[in-house]
Amino acid sequence: MDLINGLKAVYYTSLLYLRVLFSLMTPGTAIWNLFQNRKGKINLISRDLICDSETLISLPKCGKPLDGFTNALCPFLPTFLLDNDQYWKQRRDVFSIANSIINQRILENSFEFKLESKKGNVLWDIFEIIAKISFQLLFNRIPTEDEFNDIYPGLLDINKIIKRFTSKPDLQARQALYDRTLILIKQNENDFVFHDSKEFYAMNEIHQVSSIAEDFLTTISVQCTDLVCHMLLLYSKYPNDFHDNIENSIHETLRLYPLTDLWTRQPYGKQRGWIASVVQLNRNGWTQPDEFISQRWDTNDHPPLMSWGFDIRRCPAQKLATGISQLVFENILKGGDFWIRPARNFEHERTFPYGCQVWIGYGEIPSEANSWTFEGKFRMQCRRWLCEKVRMIDQNELN
Ligand code: HEM
Question: TM spans, by residue (predicted)?
Answer without folding.
Answer: 16-35
